[in-house]
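pipeline/complex-builder :: batch 7 item 3
reading input block
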Amino acid sequence: MSGYTVIGDWGTSNLRLFRVEEGRIVARRDGPGIGAVGRAAEAAFADTVAPWLADGTPLSITLCGMVGARDGWVEAPYADCPADAASWRAAAIGFDWRGAPIAIMAGLACTGADGIPDVMRGEETQIFGACARDPALAQGRRLIVLPGTHSKWALVQDGRVLAFRTVPTGELFALLRDRSTLGPKDAVGDAAQEAAGFAEGLARAGEGAVLAQLFAARAMRLRAGRSADWALGYLSGLLIGSEIAEARALLQADDGVTLIGDARLADRYARALAAQGLESQRLEGDACALAGLGYGGEMTL
Amino acid sequence: MSGYTVIGDWGTSNLRLFRVEEGRIVARRDGPGIGAVGRAAEAAFADTVAPWLADGTPLSITLCGMVGARDGWVEAPYADCPADAASWRAAAIGFDWRGAPIAIMAGLACTGADGIPDVMRGEETQIFGACARDPALAQGRRLIVLPGTHSKWALVQDGRVLAFRTVPTGELFALLRDRSTLGPKDAVGDAAQEAAGFAEGLARAGEGAVLAQLFAARAMRLRAGRSADWALGYLSGLLIGSEIAEARALLQADDGVTLIGDARLADRYARALAAQGLESQRLEGDACALAGLGYGGEMTL
């Protein structure tokens, strides 16, 4: 046996480890998120990787994500923007773990033109992975968007992250849906109604009054016969559309967009971008994360 | 005894009844909100008013607020905007209750210039009460704002409500403070820090990117040494400032503002309005509600 390496993405909710031999992923193991284990991270890692250690010490271990946060295993720094893949990799923190060299990748930090600072941990690995996989991203200017609980918008030029901004759209939507008086409690999953509400929300989003248009989710039901599913779609469209309009203005970017992430959410963002006249392409999140961790092989697992 | 009348404000959270004799309030009784009693509203009202009924049947009973909602006691209509006090009063629903004529006041409904409908129940009583108390509101054009869980912005001309808009700022702030990853869990009540955060939030609000500036509540703590109290103030200032900018643009109103409501909240709004160059005056909420219910006397209770 010629030995193996371990690469992994350890976020707040999940640990995903991949075993690589001769440039190919040969096994995968999942474990608890950093949010669940906190200071007990080392023990959780040891538990998850244990069956592989029985075959011998790995040649190297590379981890990205919240594992490097202050409340993670070992705090890794933030690389400052503008940052390219080389400066980001150089900021990783390395130490020896049971005889194997381990690297915990850095996050990214930036300060916006408006003086507001921002940070990410984990998404930068997908962004640099996307640049490694797609030559078009390593040349020219593009917005890379990772939609989610805390969406990340990164302005990338020639493979360097110039600036980025976090927009907590997914968290806000979940709060409004599950815990507010605006979120309908009686949605039945009517996809056509949801789509109609989503389109209406997108249309409203361009008007720059997101707070003053939230209440319509309720008022349109009371006064205009809209359904619960329509209201859910409306809230989603209004928030996503507003996020897009705000982030583009903030990053002063009229560039095309690359979406990375979950297919269903990327589809919603692609529709929202199209409603604002923006073309977008999509990349798969896992493939980008692995490429960012230095994996150049195929996605066999 | 020359008899007595009962006037009351019955909202989602509270029932407040006032007994009026010879043009003066002589007693007050409080009871449960409509949200707590729903279809059992009549029994709750009878319980609360019982000690007065022992003195004889009231000459009249007038109630405003959510008591007239679909899930209240008896559904009262919405008067359509533009609406003046006379057309609003005419839309009340009247019936006989144990020998006394009872009137449940109407709400107000409007459709914005953008086609979005809106409704209020209870706040219209304060608005028409304000117009009754303040001659300046019955002549000329003014914005009347009732800050709160669901802030109401009404554009009033010569005592007529032309249009209004609900902005759920208070609800959104409470969700962000209590249930989001942005709301600090370790605030200690440092008023100076809170005020500094509030001022920074107000300054950011004018930039029209409220969603993209929320995350700063967390990033400024991580990267710029701001405190938990600063972050709470920032969220409050960002939301209130954004509400003001959006509502003014939406109602196309550069007019002066009259604030009705809780003194502490009105003070925050007055500061936020001043930051956008708008003067404001304040009126006390209870006095306006009673005036809207036809009470012309002094506030002795």
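note: Chain A has two domains: 1-121, 135-301.
queue -> next item
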